[in-house]
Amino acid sequence: EHDVLACFERAAHISERWVTHTVDELLALEPAADERMGFMETQLAWEDSRDADCEFIHEKSESEQTADLKQAQCLLSHNLARLEKLEGYLCDLYEASDCNSADVTSP
Questions:
Q1: In the chain, helix, strand, coil percent, each to 5?
Q2: C-beta separation of 16 from 75 below 8 A
Q3: What's the CA gap between 53 and 76, in Å, rounded?
Q4: pLDDT digits (tens), the chain, 107 positions
């Protein structure tokens, strides 16, 4: 069971690095300083919300080992959802060059 926990913790860490990388990419594409600041405020609020949500799940778990596993799963899930949202921003708001037009669905 320790291997499962280690795997989820590693995946949560890697997914968080991808979120950070994508945030940096978005910031690099935004020319307006006030828009960059607004986006960073939004990102920091999201991180606080994610952390509070996953901490709540940790606190409500029956054992420490289960708590750590559930918290790592929570972090991974939130990070992957945020990554998808950020990649959507890259394609929809900034028309990033690595967006495949076949992957983007039009309304």
A1: 80, 0, 20
A2: yes
A3: 12
A4: 689 999 999 999 999 999 999 999 999 999 999 999 999 999 999 999 999 999 999 999 999 889 999 999 999 999 999 999 999 999 998 887 777 654 444 33
CB-count exposure of residue 48 (10 Å: 0-12, 13-18, 19+) = exposed
* Sign for the pseudo-dihedral over CA of 95, 101, 42, 7: negative
Structure tokens at 80: 């992957």
Tallying the residues shown for the chain, one arrives at 107
Angle (CA) 51-31-39 rounded to 5° is 20
Q: What is the pTM of this model?
A: 0.87
Contact yes or no for 70/59 (Cβ under 8 A): no
Instruction: Sort 76 into a burial class: Cβ within 10 Å, 0-12 / 13-18 / 19+.
Output: buried
Best CA proximity match to 21, nearest among 99, 95, 83, 96: 83
